[in-house]
Amino acid sequence: MKPSxxxxxxxxxxxxxLVSMAQSQTQVADSKKVLEDARxxxxxxxxxxxxxxxxxxxxxxxxxxxxxxxxxxxxxxxGLKLLNGIHFSMLLDRTDKVTVTHQTDTAPSNxxxxxGFEDIYSGMDQAINGFFTTWSLFMxxxxxxxxxxxxxxxxxxxxxxxxxxxxxxxxxxxxxxNLIITDIKVSSADFASSVRxxxxxxxxxxxxxxxxxxxxxxxxxxxxxxxLKIDHQPISGLxxxxxxxxxxxxxxxxxxxxLAFSEHEVKSH
Length: 269
Hints:
The protein has one domain. Helices cover 32% and strands 43% of the residues. It has helices at residues 2-41, 66-71, 73-84, 111-139; strands spanning 50-59, 86-92, 98-104, 152-155, 159-166, 169-176, 181-187, 191-202, 205-217, 224-235, 238-250, 253-268. It has a twelve-stranded antiparallel β-sheet. The N and C termini lie far apart (75 Å).
């Protein structure tokens, strides 16, 4: 009986193996097409020809001083005058680096004021660079890995789950069947983060309109929650930021910030 059983089963096993191989190859091919289609679905400033751009950055200081404006209007107005006399600008260069510069109408009158100005310069630099770090992921380049790099794409029915490595970090991206990314989770030895972006559909691809994010270090302080809203407008034919509203909570301390970008100078090819 054994030889006869083997004769009957061997062709069946071979057939099943060939079907499995064919299905596997189809899945790989489909996964590559899904990933390539998704990469092309997102607006990219670099693909649109951006080399670099400059802009002035004007903070709206009044919301930050609302309590002081209510309790001591005269002192708050004097503070607003000093703050509005600080002028910021930024440059995003060809290497994706953002440089923040500043100048002041009035030099600080004492050491306490000088230190206060330095804290403002440092805080604005961190805020602007922090914003562009995440913004660049969605607006300069593709938020998805190249189709010829190692990844795993799973079809969960109503959405896709994409898993891959970014250096030593593990990245898991959730994406709807409409190719809109709903969540990007990054886990490393130092932190765990989640970014939940929102987009508007344009003729040239999905453009970022905001995101909610969580960041938690594996130890120590630095737990952050963010909620951002971003307005873009076509400038020299490119979608560039014009307004940003940021609400953040770091280790329980809330911050509200509003920034307006204007006087854009664009270099493109």
